[in-house]
Design brief:
single chain, alpha/beta, Rossmann fold, Dihydrodipicolinate Reductase, domain 2, 2 domains, eight-stranded mixed sheet, six-stranded parallel sheet, 13 helices, 38% helix, globular
Length: 376
């Protein structure tokens, strides 16, 4: 059995979850890590008994790395991705793909140029309740999906933002709840409802005066399939309540998933408190299945380390894609769609008008966070 050699780029909190996930995959082997900080790389490498590097090119070439997982803060994904692509490694990037559309486009272009696969972490797609919703839509059980909603009410306190210097700033984090906490739910909504035609959105910082970025957003969405949607996401609700995605069909049936319950998960700092469950299911003849599914999902949840298990599932899919000569389930192009959506929300607030899709970068300059700094 071929062992796929994997490297990790960036050694922050979420990198430890990836290291554990890789360890649980028989076909995978963590070989090396890279960080801009020599000390950080060496400490991480010592913990997992791998090699430490400060050169991505050297790390990949010396070890014939098959795949790298990029775990740097969001605005700093682009350069490691491009360096890895040039060196010939396939790449899986932590969500979101980037903070700006320009960075997304540069990364996608580099991977196409050098013939490597690009994927984006969205491990909640592997939740059984999420997959039930997707299959019900694909099987036509709700007819055309005509209304999609996200409700994600969570809380982040001052200690959360103080824990890492990059948090809560435009230049270092790229945004707030839209960029950091909401991408999983945004990705699921797009996966279920399809491409967007137009967005009108408003973001605010309601009760976090010590950060620059958004803690809340409310959005109206028009989809290209004729459906409509509503998004409410917030880091302003104590103690942290839930994240839900609900899809309603033209035949009157509805399906939904609570992806997050209890206090919202913080990578490297907390555990997933409640199992993901189907919290809405009105398909005729299947309503009674909710209790059975919730029992099954709760039982499964007790047997796994949820913060690692679903990452393992997505990394395994990426390896399978490499073996089978196909695209990974979550591609770079799909990751760009999430960035396109939150970029449209920022622009809509900036200009106080609906934003038509598709979007292209409108950065005033390369370091202007897609215009967010000069025009906020």
């Amino acid at each position: 059995m071929k062992k796929y050699k994997i490297g990790i780029l960036g050694c922050g909190k979420v990198a430890h979850l990836h290291a554990k996930a890789i360890h649980d995959i028989p076909e995978a082997e963590l070989i090396a890590v890279w960080s801009r900080s020599k000390e950080t790389a060496e400490n991480f490498a010592a913990k997992y008994k791998v090699k430490a590097y400060q050169s991505i090119t050297k790390m990949i070439s010396e070890n014939q790395i098959d795949l790298v997982v990029v775990c740097t803060p969001h605005p700093f994904h682009k350069n490691p991705v491009i360096d890895a692509a040039k060196a010939g490694a396939n790449i899986l990037v932590e969500k979101p793909l980037a903070s700006t559309l320009k960075d997304c486009d540069d990364m996608i272009s580099a991977c196409e140029q050098y013939g490597v696969e690009l994927g984006v972490i969205s491990q909640r797609r592997w939740y059984a309740p999420v997959q039930r919703v997707k299959k019900a839509i694909e099987d036509g059980k709700i007819g055309r999906p005509v209304l999609g909603t996200i409700t994600m009410l969570g809380w982040r306190d001052e200690g959360y933002y103080a824990a890492d210097a990059w948090r809560g700033t435009w230049k270092m984090e790229g945004g707030g709840v839209l960029v950091n906490q909401a991408p999983h739910q945004l990705d699921i909504l797009l996966w279920m409802m399809g491409d967007i035609d137009e967005v009108y959105g408003i973001w605010r910082n309601l009760n976090h005066p010590y950060i620059e970025v958004d803690d809340t957003a409310v959005v109206i969405v028009k989809f290209k399939n004729g459906g409509i949607g509503n998004i409410l996401v917030s880091n302003s609700q104590k103690p942290g309540i839930h994240g839900k995605v609900h899809i309603h069909g033209e035949n009157g049936s509805s399906v939904g998933v609570q992806t997050d319950g209890g206090a919202m998960f913080i990578a490297g700092s907390s555990e997933v408190l409640e199992p993901p469950v189907n919290d809405l299911w009105t398909i005729s003849g299947e309503e009674h299945m909710l209790t059975q599914w919730n029992n099954e999902d709760s039982d499964h949840f007790q047997k796994i380390e949820a913060t690692v298990y679903y990452m393992k599932e997505q990394i395994q899919d990426f390896i399978n894609a490499l073996k089978e000569g196909r695209n990974p389930i979550v591609t770079g192009e799909q990751g760009r769609k999430t960035v396109e959506l939150f970029s449209a929300i920022y622009r809509s607030t900036r200009y106080n008008k609906p934003i038509k899709f598709p979007l292209v970068s409108d950065a005033v300059n390369e370091n202007d966070m897609d215009g967010r700094l000069s025009l906020k």
